[in-house]
Amino acid sequence: TAFKEKDKVNDFTLIEKMGEIALAVSFVMRWIYSFIGIPTHSNTSSVNTLVSNALGQDRVDLAKKSINRTIILSLGMTFALGLSLFFIPETLTKVFTDDIQIIAEAPKWLPLLFWISLVSAVSTTVFNGIVGAGATRMSFIIELFAVIFYLSYTFFVINHLGKGLGWVWMAEFIYWSMLLALSLLLMASGKWRKKI
Description:
Layout: H1 2-16, H2 20-36, H3 38-56, H4 60-82, H5 84-87, H6 89-96, H7 100-105, H8 110-132, H9 136-161, H10 165-189
């Protein structure tokens, strides 16, 4: 999402305060996280078109079915790729760096990316279904709220609690969970499809 990419820069600026190794580990984690997320991003970009087409035919049932099928597809692909985070974390880390300290440190955080990626697979699909329905104002508000919370959490965890890298990366889990919860609330209200 548009806001999210810009906030990655802010997130890494905050992580920089945690030290050079934490920053380097986060960069490796981001690259691996991006790789695991490829199926989700490709599937969810198509859900926009599917939902828009279904609602254009006045087929709310087909729009919901498209979202649900895309969720299953994204979850399955993310789960399959994500298993590598448990079984070959060192190998994945070595693809992106040859630094011994990073190779020693990064693998312990990679399983966290598995859970983040699963939540992301669902929330991105549901959110993009709302965007495909034409509820752009509401999707903007949802994402704005989630990003503000994401940045506030990250800032607080680093600057006030002094927590480690795992706590900082939990911001991703919280962001995607919040995006999912707010998107599901909008869908449950029925207002998401009135924009077409």
